[in-house]
Task: structure prediction
Amino acid sequence: MAEIKLDSLIKSYGPDQVLHHVGADIEDGEFIVIVGPSGCGKSTLLRMIAGLETITSGEVSIGGKVVNGLEPADRDIAMVFQNYALYPHMSVRQNMAYGLKIRGTPKAEIARRVQEAAEILEIGAFLDRKPRQLSGGQRQRVAMGRAIVRDPQVFLFDEPLSNLDAKLRVQMRLEIRKLQKRLGVTSIFVTHDQVEAMTLGDRLMVLNGGYVEQFGTPIELYDRPETVFVAGFIGSPAMNFLPAEADGGVVTLANGVSLPGAEGVRGKITFGVRPEHLVPDAAGPIRVQVQVFEALGANTLVHGVLEGTDTELVVSLPGHETPTPGDVLCYAAPGEHHHLFDAESGARIAP
Amino acid sequence: MLKRVHFPASLLPYLLVAPQVFITLVFFIWPASQAVYQSLLVQDAFGLSTEFVWFENFEYLWGNQQYRDTFGRTIFFSVAVAFLSMSFALILAGFADRVIRGSTVYRTLLIWPYAVAPVLAGALWLFMFNPTLGIIPFILDAFGRDWNHYLNGGEAMFLVIIAAAWKQVAYNFLFYLAAMQSIPRSIIEAAAIDGAGPVRRFVTVIFPLISPTTFFLLVVNAVYAFFETFGIIHAVTQGGPANATTTLVYKVYNDGFIGLDLGGSAAQSVILMILVIAMTVVQFRFIEKRVQY
Result:
């Protein structure tokens, strides 16, 4: 069992710096999800923790021990790869036993651990098959099995669900979550899928362009996104952003409509409100000209523009609604759901 | 409905394959059938009389101790060449696979020997091992070892094996490197995380995964050593001393063009033809099935 400390990690390829001063304290048994768009450096960060990439500067410590100079094998970690990376010439049993065999574990012990892991993952029936005889979901389980038999201090997951179909992905997501809670092993999971991130992680690290945008619990990220990027990335459908002007406790939108709020703030801001926080109100200040709507069954997504502007807006309404395209609908945005960001830097303005 | 295009039955398809068929007939089928026909003849050394003798030439070879010795020698030679060039190429490829900086230069240089003509490759090694001028006998002399492949059959064999293997290393290297680079990086990384060091990874993961390439190269190298080493042997030892480096192909040449036993020589080349057909069949069968792992 181990806590992980990332201290001001930097990664550069020649003159290009791809990770900038990444720091985090991860507690023992925590499930951390690193999430961000492709190319944000999330896999690089994971591979640095695993020891598959060199660390340009900064420190990684696992269980209080700095591991910068250690080989991957000596870091007591297990990793699940995106393409599973099973050894194609070995049976499932041999795949799972490989790491233990190298470490000189006694045969009886290996057999016992493989059996145990196979039972947990329900792959006992095909221990003697080769990976190519398995389906994607089964391979995924074997890859997990290979990680858990070793009983490592840390699990690292590099987008392990992205090769599965949508249904299986949801199922495996739940299973990984349950398994991690049951084993209590500190885990780091990399994904580009914000739903996966929200459902799996105890805490999320949002990476963008090599910078940590925010590091917190899913609900913190949802309720109080620190930057426009996080606000837009977490939550589905994404938050609406309206350019606005703040002065003397009043926010004025681009079409001249004013709302109360933003005490003590002056100048250009980005006004954010989530689609699900807009409530129908005949006297509401946010007037939306409807373009199309999507009926999802449980709710209806109304796509339109802020009346008098080109700024697109999405409203999520519960139940079935059938608005007519071209109509103007009015919504109110309760003050506690306002998000104000600096128009220049994108940083959150209190509250 | 798919619209099918029908060509009227005409001469066109036959005309299109005609050049290929013509070349095959003139350069392969005709000489091969001539060889088969020749192998059934006995001709006197001056070419004045020819007699049709059915399979007498083959019967003679069957009972000929010298021919059997040559057969054994060729197999030894082939195994040695294949083993030496393949294992050396495997080691080089293993290292080249890990090189990141300057890998193109490294690879290009390693491919050069393949571009050297067999006779030149032979001449090169001949100079290096020349008992009076060569650098290697000079060095060996310092260790009190006397080298003379003109007199010592074993040394002569060693020399042609080295020369033949050296030339083939480049080819094997290319295939091994390509095979190694087609192994997904994450499998190697997974093995590294599982605790396997470089040597262990090579033995337990990389080598089993490139076994199809190994089999392919085994056949190719055997064919090479059997048939394409004539130039090297001719340049280095001329099959000597005392036939110590005479392989089957060299014997075909020697008996036919030096000994002027055209029938016997043709019979030997027919046997070689059957051998190469057999090897090709094995290889094709294998390529269809692939190695199951």
User: Anything to note?
Assistant: The longest helix of chain B spans residues 65-98. Chain B has one domain: 67-257+275-290.
